[in-house]
Amino acid sequence: MIPTIATPRMIHLECPIELYTLEELEFLLLHLEGAEFGQKTKDKCPSRVREVAVMKTRISECMHLVEGRRWLLVASGTGSVTYSDLDASPIIESILIPDQHPSLDIMMWTHMAVDVDRDSAFIAFNLALSFCTPDTVTYPTQHCIQIWKVVLLHDAQQRRVGLAAEHLASFPQEPLIGRVKSLSLCGPHIALSAFCRESEYPATRLRN
To answer: Quick one: which of 106, 123, 115 has its CA closest to 183?
Structure first.
């Protein structure tokens, strides 16, 4: 199969193949075949649909489906990030990153970007969070970008049971930036497209 944007690419393993059971490998293969079947139907109706109930106490700002289609990340306006295991039954939303701005009277504009670590034997990725506030005078430290390292958690039987995050770095955003429109992370580089407060046209910023 030739991979395209519209078709499934391959099975993405979260750890070395020798750590998978035969049942787990069969499960992954059936998922891939089901996705291929859905792409070939005339109505493009997916063969499998999963519903996720997000926490009512948090307003979702953006989400990202991690490569492999198992882990769904949801970022909120208070700076928290939750994750859901789409292979679990029932699906339970868990906190990956706690609220970063829980006491603010305003909601933050939040963007998220993921960069998968291709050199890791186990699934791992860097996560960038961009927070923008409409009031940089009152809340200057909340107008920032954070970088987190996310790794896979195992239980005593080496089963993959969740995700954990470690804060790597943070730096302030320029006060001129009013709101980030898109965010991209690649290795040590981060790029963003933003609307500036003194211009009606977007500007692009690059950081190392």
So the answer is: 115
Residue 78 has pLDDT above 50, yes or no: yes
Pairing type for strands 81-85 and 124-132 reads: unpaired
Q: What is the pTM of this model?
A: 0.77
Mean pLDDT of the chain: 80
- Give the pLDDT confidence score for residue 36 in this predicted structure: 62
Cα angle value 10/113/140 (rounded, 5°): 170
Instruction: Give the pLDDT confidence score for residue 167 in this predicted structure.
Output: 97
